[in-house]
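=== RUN LOG ===
request id: a7f3
mode: sequence -> structure
chains: 1
length: 440
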Amino acid sequence: MTKKYDLVIVGGGPAGLMAARVAGENGLKCAVLERKTDITNITRIDGGILSPMNEYTFGQTVTFNPEAKKIGFPASGFSITYDGPYQNIYGFNLYSPRGNTIVFGDREKQKTDPEKYRAGVSLDKGLMLQGLLDDAAKNGADMYPGVNVTGIETHGDRVRVTGNNDVFEGVFVIAADGVNSRIARLMGMNRHREFYATHPECAWSIQDVDLPEIEGIGFFFTSYGNFYVSSCCRKNHYHVGSTSFKPTDDFPGLLNRFVYEDEVFSPLFKGAKKTEEVSCVINMLSPMKEPFKDNVLFIGDAAWLMEVTNVAAMCCGWKAANEITLAMLDAKRDKEGIAGYLEWWNTYFYKPYGHVEFKPIELQDFFAPGDIDYLAGLVTKPLIATMDFYKLTSTLGNTFAELFPVIQEERPDVMEKLMSVVNRMDEAEADVKKAGFPNR
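=== RESULT ===
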């Protein structure tokens, strides 16, 4: 039997649940199809980071008022309730193989007034999703957990989604099913997107350790691999992960070496208790220029390179549901009806960031560990406080461009390597693509 709705949403993450909440508020008959049986169970490492605070990314910023238990999205004009643990986060740290550190954010200044200077907060993402799920259900959205979507087709002026041998039919469909979107593959949306890399990741949850210098995300570049440590919402809890563009790497083995054996960094984790291990694989494709086809609107990570952030994902869901509501009210049940979303997407996402060239390369492909130590040691003052990866990379580029005269004088060998990176980048990029599996 076909279940008929105004809107069918595939994916019960931040984008999909926000879209369901708003669609229900607006009076649309709405269904959410989620592959997981427990919608709020986080099956991959996610620190629940909410950023940007005190800056803008994708035209959005976020506020957090723990007394009122409210997370605000002032640029879009809505808020959500959150009543759970949190920790302030202040920015990025980059660590060289010998422990030289590039710090984003002046921690001493930031902590004098955390609300004014923090870059974000880390919260319990499961609790945040539960709040969105409860609101969506109260507003009339039907939830279908444990549904594995296997087909999608246009049927007249409606769209049919098949999952678990059931058929869900909507005037519009929102694909909010993440960076490895099955809806995108089924509809051929990835065929013309550039494949950048296959990005595997293995991560542990750890506790009973205090890393006050992190208070955000730390990236560690070693001679044998790249790692990250991120703050969690509960004190003395962290995520530590191993990442690469080489799917054949032994990620659990690399993590074990980093946490327990590395002579520089393993002392940081002394006494840490490992509580969980999870892995995931992401195929990185260029962003969608026009995330719409046959009344299916792709939002959030499903239309992006990797992760658009929790904040941007919820804003995508909010905007998409409101535009689809207007399309229904105005009897413009086609691309014209949701033109406002596509314009918004182009203005804040695709136009400023969609053409930014992503190079899936690793420092170890170009520099020896001693070179990385030298370069990191040149940056002696805190850089801008940010949790924006685009600002991270552009700030690093500008910082080292200003240091070129110093590098040329002190280490002409390193300067020569810096100048040769561009010539060697295409070869390294080609190797990464060959190692991946696009699955488009």
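=== NOTES ===
The mean pLDDT is 95.
The CA atoms of residues 206 and 274 lie 4 Å apart.
=== END ===
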